[in-house]
Specification:
2 domains; 12 strands; Aspartate Aminotransferase, domain 2; five-stranded mixed sheet; 17 helices; binds pyridoxal-5'-phosphate; Aspartate Aminotransferase, domain 1; 427 residues; alpha/beta
Length: 427
């Protein structure tokens, strides 16, 4: 780790330190396994007595380079890459919350995460309470139970675009002795620094801005190394792990306990590992992340300002706009920009929205955000379709809501395309 580097330098140089004669670029180590000369060496690797690769489900040099670069950029102590953002969320919670236990989450979530928490976790015996992130601290505290193990939220809610009140959420988590787990997919480590605002674990869907070019599905968990797992509430990290011949994670690994356990216990057993090729693409993507995030943010702000004055638009939500309810918080937690996603209400409702999306020529109708290419979506009929109307409302989705993921094309071309599509939508 070289914390003195700025994030732009970490993005380019971090995570891979080639020795004389090594390839300049991180290589794709497309190998399931690794060769050794003596059994004793392999035993030491299995016993975690020395670092090294022995099977790609548990670690791979290309994936390791991705994990190290992202951990450095986020300011964490370690990271674990996963096969999808959904796997990152699942493992991040499952690492500390089991059947018969409970966690609290902000309700303003990506639809897939909402489903995971509302439907699948309860089937596994894990109970979840959804809270309005704008509720008072006392109201949120009231959702906690003796068996509550985590507090979860997104930095920028998808698609409500509410910026999290980190001060409130981190003080609640501290008071209750549980980690604050943050999905910072929309913000990325360039725009928001969750560990500096009290988060303990950060997850990303790498599929979005980290990849940046819409080539690969993946996720990552980053450990801030700043939570006291020995506070008596997390015996799975302090008591012997019988599945690992009595390993005690905190005792053996100190402030890396959480992320080591996620790897050697959960990744070992659940196997949601990324392919080395995808890890290579994420490593490539990270190198331009700061440049892209600045351009995404600048374009989105300009487009939001354009839409705010447009006669076919009834409302615009973008945290960078003064009119947005989270604007002050955006200035505090997202000082460089508010990322590339904005939403707006189109006059004429769902029908006009359909016409608008079909009339866009440059902006493509795609189920995605975070691509360098601009894209558009109607969440109520797609990403949040499986939710009930009440759940949709709780996640900030309304029938007239159009979500734009603003890319890094020239802003003049984007405004021209959106303008002509809005004109068509009103005919
Ligand atoms: N978190 C957020 C905020 C997302 O937008 C998404 C996907 O859109 C996910 C998590 C899930 O990530 P993935 O699609 O990589 O599984």
């Amino acid at each position: 780790m070289k914390p003195a580097w700025k994030i732009e330098t970490q993005a380019i140089q971090g995570g891979y330190d080639p020795k004389p004669g090594d390839p300049r670029v991180v290589t794709i180590c497309q190998s399931t396994t690794f060769k050794y000369d003596n059994a004793e060496h392999v035993t030491r690797l299995f016993d975690l007595e020395e670092p090294g690769f022995f099977y790609t489900r548990l670690g791979n040099p290309t994936t390791d380079a991705f994990e190290q670069k992202l951990a450095m950029m986020e300011g964490g102590v370690g990271a674990l890459a996963t096969s999808a953002g959904q796997a990152a969320t699942t493992l991040a919670i499952f690492n500390i919350c089991q059947a018969g236990q409970h966690f609290v989450t902000a309700s303003t979530l990506y639809g897939g995460t909402y489903n995971l928490f509302a439907c699948t976790f309860p089937k596994m015996g894990i109970e979840v309470t959804f809270v309005d992130p704008e509720a008072s601290a006392d109201e949120i505290l009231a959702a906690f139970r003796p068996n509550t193990k985590a507090l979860f939220a997104e930095t920028i809610g998808n698609p409500g675009l509410n910026v999290l009140d980190f001060a409130k959420f981190s003080s609640i988590a501290k008071e209750k002795g549980v980690p604050l787990v943050i999905d910072s997919t929309f913000a990325t480590p360039y725009l928001c620094r969750p560990f500096e605002h009290g988060a303990n674990v950060v997850i990303h869907s790498a599929t979005k801005y980290i990849d940046g070019l819409a080539t690969s599905v993946g996720g990552i968990i980053v450990d801030g190394g700043n939570f006291d797992w020995g506070n008596g509430r997390f015996p799975e990290l302090t008591e012997p792990d019988e599945s690992y011949h009595g390993l005690q994670y905190v005792k053996a690994f100190g402030n890396l306990a959480y992320i080591v356990k996620a790897r050697v216990q959960l990744m070992r057993d659940l196997g949601s590992v990324p392919s080395p090729f995808n890890s290579f693409l994420f490593t490539q993507g990270l190198q331009t992340l700061p440049l892209r995030m600045q351009r995404h943010s600048d374009n989105a702000l300009a487009l939001a300002q354009f839409l705010e004055g447009h006669p076919a638009v009834s409302w615009v939500k973008y945290p960078g706009l003064k009119s947005h309810a989270s604007h002050d918080r955006a200035l505090k937690y997202l000082p460089l920009g508010c990322s590339g996603v904005l939403t707006f209400g189109i006059k004429g409702g769902t029908e006009a929205g359909k016409k608008f999306m079909e009339a866009c020529r440059l902006v493509a109708l795609v189920v995605h955000v975070g691509d360098a290419r601009s894209c558009v979506l109607h969440p109520a009929s797609t990403t949040h379709r499986q939710l009930t109307p009440e759940q949709q409302a709780a996640s900030g989705v309304t029938a007239d809501l159009i979500r734009l993921s603003v890319g890094i094309e020239h802003i003049d071309d984007l405004i021209a395309d959106v303008d002509q599509a809005l004109a068509t939508s009103q005919k």
